[in-house]
Amino acid sequence: MASRRLVFRLLAQHKPLGQLSCNQATNRCRSSQRRLSSFAHTSASQHSSTFLTKYFGWAALSLLAASPFLYKMAIPDKLNLDSLSLVERDQQTKRENAITDASPMRLRMEKFVKEKQKEIVQALEAVDGSKFQVDEWQRKEGGGGITCVLQDGNVFEKAGVGISVVYGSLPKAGIMKMRANHKNLVDGEKIPDSLEFFAAGLSLIVHPKNPMAPTVHLNYRYFETAKPDGTSGAWWFGGGSDLTPNYIFGEDAVQFHKSLKDACDRHNKGYYPRFKKWCDEYFYNKHRNESRGIGGIFFDDLDETVQDKENLFAFIKDSLDSFAPTYTAIVNRRKDMPFTEEEKEWQQIRRGRYVEFNLVHDRGTSFGLNTPGARVESILMSLPLTAGWKYMHEPKPDSREAKLVEVLKHPKEWV
Amino acid sequence: MASRRLVFRLLAQHKPLGQLSCNQATNRCRSSQRRLSSFAHTSASQHSSTFLTKYFGWAALSLLAASPFLYKMAIPDKLNLDSLSLVERDQQTKRENAITDASPMRLRMEKFVKEKQKEIVQALEAVDGSKFQVDEWQRKEGGGGITCVLQDGNVFEKAGVGISVVYGSLPKAGIMKMRANHKNLVDGEKIPDSLEFFAAGLSLIVHPKNPMAPTVHLNYRYFETAKPDGTSGAWWFGGGSDLTPNYIFGEDAVQFHKSLKDACDRHNKGYYPRFKKWCDEYFYNKHRNESRGIGGIFFDDLDETVQDKENLFAFIKDSLDSFAPTYTAIVNRRKDMPFTEEEKEWQQIRRGRYVEFNLVHDRGTSFGLNTPGARVESILMSLPLTAGWKYMHEPKPDSREAKLVEVLKHPKEWV
Prior knowledge:
2 copies of one chain form a homodimer.
Chain A: H1 14-18, H2 33-55, H3 58-66, H4 86-96, H5 105-128, E1 133-136, E2 144-151, E3 156-171, H6 172-179, E4 194-208, E5 215-226, E6 232-244, H7 250-265, H8 271-282, E7 284-285, E8 290-291, E9 295-302, H9 309-334, H10 341-361, H11 363-369, H12 376-379, H13 400-409
Antiparallel strand pairs in A: 1-2, 2-3, 3-4, 4-5, 5-6, 6-9, 7-8
Helix pairs in contact in A: 2-6, 3-11, 5-9, 7-9
């Protein structure tokens, strides 16, 4: 029996659709999906082959989780179980059953990041006293993203909490590259021409107004490929969280690191030292010879060679759960502290460094910005509402500013 | 007779020298140069081989001119004319003769950009009413840079005018890559292991305070290699200038483009259309699908296949000469115009886009920031004192802001 495969696209191509006056955020184009499907398919394949070949690996995965994408697809006339794609199977499962611990990890992760997004947004709204703007582009056919941003609030100058759920197809070159880190990506020696994949993640960044309150970033993601028979192929988790203060408060640094260490230790005593080091190495502004902030944890490619899927998911949940209580406690201590004009200026300079890291060194951001049609506003929700660059600015010796720089040049062990 | 070759370094290695508490801006390390020379040589060769191999071509050349570097070298005991390096020859020439039209182009270009820097700094100071900070690291042995910055002035929020004069050595991989654009880089088929080169340029960026006054950027540079006998090998000029307004004033756009077109037309009627198009293509924020500004001219690799050296130098001089009178006239018209808080906010958003271009797409900046030991403060003098990012900001239809965006999406012919 003939059936049409869904046409799924990892990276939405806005240029051609722009002529049909589609709105990125609200997906007004549903009615014209059908007739666009074959064009969309060709165009998507070309782009994914070019870009995934060039950048695949960590960068792509990070982006998938860090920024939402639009999906454009044709609706199949009939479903044939034997030829169902990954997304069709998942849609069917979601229609027919509640998500439980027995559901595929894809659906459990999707459910989890959605719940966490709500929780975190509420927790931040409670601190700020004002509401997030919510941009959702969920599709009844499956997949989508939600970007929540609070801008110019009472406490937060900019806070973004985004989730994305992506179904796509890895081209051969991407499979070959990814195989270096994941031996079980393909059964046997023969590499298929493409491989369906799924990625879901939650990404967050908060820039408070008060220079005494630290900026924070967090990202947790899950990636999985599908075997031709529809069962799960390779999979892994990635993520982490890091703090970027303008002024060092030992109490905050210790609390932030301790909450992450506790979450790590409950699962594996080796995690924290390994992931803390990884974080210091990754969030490093090498052209300035200084770290972006005081770190936290960072990890990628956590698969069955590290720990089984259930236990890794439990670790991810624990780490994410620990975020909101810890960060809101830190912000509540700092948000009403007095500060001078010079301290506000220092915050602006530090934000400039944050922008430098994100635009120059962050692989996910760079991949996203070089990908045609990516939702730029979601990728760049990480950038502060205000930032500055002062030529040859040097903190005075022994000042609180100099003490921060000292720590950024020589990362400390906080717990 | 034995003589020691000068140890010259394109890229200063600050990390090892940092232990000797050298100050980047003031070169306190002269006395310890000698004993460091052999280490410096090894380290420099390693880095130049890695980085030049990876990035060579336009990017490297642009950087050389766009940002000053430190030089560290050993002083030779005696000079032997037969084995003099390019810099030694030039030093000798400068000691013995005044620079005239008969001098090598290297020395004429160096003299010219130094004179122009002074002139432009004075012209901008006259508009602003305050003085530039001047950081000079000229060495009596040859080569160096001068970075002039005016920050938080009366009219200008940040203005940077920098010159640099670089002597260095191209590794084999760099020669091979560069040869694609410059067939006469090497005589015959045998590619030497290294090739001495010279680069000099002037680079400028001005961000005015008043949102009605446009940001401007300019960069003119000359590159040359030396044959083993010390005579000039391959050479070429590059450069251009472009305007980035927050609000379109037709009068300003026309005046800016006309002054460039006039300079071009005096030398070759084909220059302006070709270089205007090149500018629109280069200064393009492709992740935003919009130009950085309203363009100007941009060119590179102008060598004997385009025009003879004398005539190209005359064109460069003409273009640079036209800058100060044109830009100061534009700024004088705009600097005292009234503006609203919303217009100031729009300026901040446009500056955010400027930062995005410079950090994400500009090849010279990217090369510089990925080069260990480069003088970051000079490379990033281009970034504004203040900038901002507002999530999902869209200008109101038919507003003056929307009119700017329309032009950025569809570059106009102004003259």
